[in-house]
Request: fold
Amino acid sequence: MTASPRPDARPKLEGSAVFGMDLESPGMLWGALVPAPVAHGRLRSVDLAPARAIEGVVAIGAADLASLLPGSSGDPDRPVFPTDTVAYRNQPVAAVAAPTRELARQAARAVRVEVEPLPVVSDLEEIFPEWPGPSADSSPHVAAHVRAREGDVEAVFRTADTVVREVYRTSSVHQVALEPHACLAEVGDGKWRVRTSTQSPFGAREDIASLLGVPEESVVVEGTWVGGGFGGKGSALLEPYALLLARAAGRPVKLALGYREEFLLGRTTLPSVIRMETAVAHGRIVARRVRLLLDVGNALPGRDFATGFAIGFLLGPYATPAFEVEGYAVRTNKPAFGPHRAPFAPQCAFVLESHLDHVAREAGVDPGAFRAAHLWKEGDRTPLGQAVGPFGLAAAFEKARAIAARWRAEAGPDHGVGVAAGFWSTGTGAGGEVRLLLRPTGLTVVQGEREIGSGSVLAGVAAVAARCTGLPRDRVTVAYESTARAPFDSGVYGSRTTAVLGRAVEEATRMLFADLGRRLGLAEPVPRLAVAEDEVVVVAGTTRRPIREVLTEAERTGDGLVATGRHYGKGGTIDERKVEAGAFYPFTDFTGAAHVAEVSVDRGTGTVRVVRYAAVHDAGTIIDPASASAQIEGGVVMGLGTALTEEALWSEDGRLLNAGLLDYRIPTLGSVPPIEVTFVEGFSGAGPFGAKGLGEPPIIPVAAAVALAVRDATGAHVTELPLSSERVARALNLL
Amino acid sequence: MPTPIVLTVNGQRRPLDRVPDSERLLDTIRWRLGLKGTKEGCRSGECGACTVLVDGVSTLSCLTLTHEVDGASLTTIEGVAADPVGRNVQEAFARAGALQCGYCTPGFVLALVGLLKERGADASTDELLTDLGGNLCRCTGYLSIARAVSLLQREGE
Amino acid sequence: MPTAFTLVFPASVEAAIAELATGSPGEVVVLAGGTDLIFDLDAARSTARRVVSLRHLPWRTLDWNGPVLTVGSTLPLRSLEQDPEVAARHPGLLQAIRAVGGVPLRHRATLGGNLGRAAPASDLLPVLLALDAEVDLVGPHGSRTLSVDRFLVASRRTALASGELIRSVRFPEPRPSAYLWQRVRPEHDISQIAVAAARSPSDGRWRLAVGGIPPRVVRLPEAESLLRSAAPADSEIRFAAEEAAQRLSIAADRRASEEYRRHLVATLLERAVQSVVTSSDRSR
Reply:
């Protein structure tokens, strides 16, 4: 329960908060995208004439880009409209705008697209039914290849007591934010302006500028309230089309996706096949081999981040003396792999935890004790050689095991309890800045992010500012400005927002206090602020000086009492000697999460129900407890979807079969168990006051915890996600 | 030529004479009446974001033809505060922190107001939560919403 | 996206029937609650030019005549759901109704609409079959009554003759019944497989129905005849359930394999019959 309501509660509860979908402008046209009718083919022609014949319709295609963007070449690897090949079904090949939404859809349907079909690759196992050999590097289907090693894994396997080899498969899942993508674009006075529902106004600006081939300063992005992002709104999707249409039409253009299109065009987590091999001797892991095949859809070769990133989570937070890890990013005819919440980490945790649990059982060791014995602690080195910083996962795991032991003792027949570990790293992105503005009424933090819902901006950043300055929370406001006026920030994603902006606030506070000290003629920067008689005062020793005293002068000679701070965090370093191919990523800090799931399994149908849940989190210093619990509850429930019911079903010809909420099932109110939340403290992170990012960790161990609970309940060992009732039924040998 | 209709929206009489037969109530509310608080989510009856009250009864405005409700009295999120039940629901949601991005919030509020008007103090928290099963949320994980409902029922006693 | 169509509001049954005569069944369609029709129009699965709203027809009714329940075809499901007599005497029907969408949807969705659509995955139809429900139809040539079993032909095809409307649905008697289902998302979803079992107190025979297997919801007469008493032995029940599952023509769908679906039918049927036996036991 919150002590005071969120600052954004009122507009959202009263219906006055304007989201991207709500944007409107006089004289605006509605846009629509023209989709490619097949998943792979040679584009023969795109005939816009039938659309243009409809009164009021503006239509643009590849042929119009030269006149719409004179002198620019855009990004040759990512053309706005394809000219040669269609790479995935529904790929936009043209765009139209019309006075009404319905007319725009009609116009889009009227465009005649001729494509000569080419063979479609929809399933990565079609390309690589077995683990690929060395020739895979030259395959056109491989977008990236990563490999790292330490020691001689094969030699160790030969002498180990137990070697366990398994294959796991995970499915594609979608972000499913409730608000579809939407934006409103207007072009004029040399500016490309767009108001949009985005997690990253500056990121969108950069993307738009790059795709259109125009200078960044000519692009102005203003974010609206965002109806959920979860990674899906972290980069530009619709904005370039809307801007081009606005340019062509000479009028504002509103472009919003229908919900089906959200699924069809969404860039998200795609399927994977993961081979895990682990050797154990005397109850310890002595060697591991990890082989990842990750479907990356239409990702560009050389621009993959997912594979090297994922490998880190498949190695996991466990001591591993010898290892071989290898991953291939495999291109298929689907939209490109894009970030989901904690991109691909829930799938990695499911695989890793399930595998190590199985390994322990095969080696005759208690699975919980086995994992606990290998968990990293501060001072250890990760397999890739990075020093582990303060890390509370071992402590969290111990707490979780204690909860699990209690629950198991109380559990009835066909009930089981599973414990799973997960870890994450507070993101940094390209860093961020804030501007502080101090007035007698209070402090305003000016920054470039919209609050997307987590509280990281409005609550988190405000809480940090209050703590840094000494002001009460209700005297701190976080203000949003568009990219034209706001200080740069990389975006609300990667669990980075409070941490990065918070550190920027710390620096800005130091600058502000130094400035105030000088203006007041003090020997040192002021130590803190307070409120007395309803105005902001500086507290220095026994004196209190209202800032009003120096404000007039500050406003006369400059912008008032302002200060800027920036933070460009850095990750640690990995030992590049272990890397043989591709890019791997160091961690910024080490955030732990250990979850406990109790399930009941219907032994007749294989149906799994989660009856209670506990989440133990190592989140460093908790900046805003209400947001922290809220993120955990939300993340756990989203994780339950990944665990049990969410999977995007793709046909052989590259069609997404369940593009809608009817057949892509996300958790509903009735599916939520009670969730107990606890924190382990004292392990500090990269954020201000030792905070660690909390937006993503909660989703990571969920599927793993549920899978292990199912195993505990029934012995059924499921090696695929989601744990559908049929997969469980098969693992129970019911069929 | 479509026939003229009249809707009473949040207590205000709104005659509309150019609504096409095929228009959805959701679009009439958002684009003709300018009331954007009612949200467009899935537009297919699965998410509940578009829930409004028609003659006090909760309805999915995305699946309702505007002409079907000619003469009816509508309540949208902008008008719930006029009723103490509505105000209590908003207050309970604020106090329980039962929202994050806020996109599902108007739909939940209207659905809950509809249920409370239908069942009143009779309904248990569990029954209300079961009956809210048609409203989806992706951010909160629903527990804070459950706490808001629980708060309402406790304080209603 | 919705095609442009004309919406008409006939004020009487005769006027409504006359409206239907103005075009072919695809061009002129009936609007009850609209929860399915609107969806079809948006997805361009319907190309209706004229939509006939039943809003003003006097069919939002619910009547008991002794044990017989007659429900008007345009009564919103929520009204049926909230009727205490229905809850008491037809608990299986209540369970099935609560499986349809959410409350706001049930404020508009109707029994008539659900029957008219004849979706293989409808949660209401198995129970209607198990209760031997009948549909009263009215059309240009007068009225007639058909069993629901006769009324349903195939997926989205019914025995409605040209110009006919569903006026009401009648349930001849309350029966101990059970309704079980399997869903991807257990708490709130359309069903993959749904099973209804009921036993008639008047003729002593069992009714078993299964939904979710195209082309339509079906009764299982052979299995029914294998259940020879009000409380068959466990082995008899299991045998009947397995027989029924074996006889059905089941294909895989994109969600589940053929073997699993068959297994579900057998499992759920067995449980449904057991449930009826148990609840009948308890009520003695």
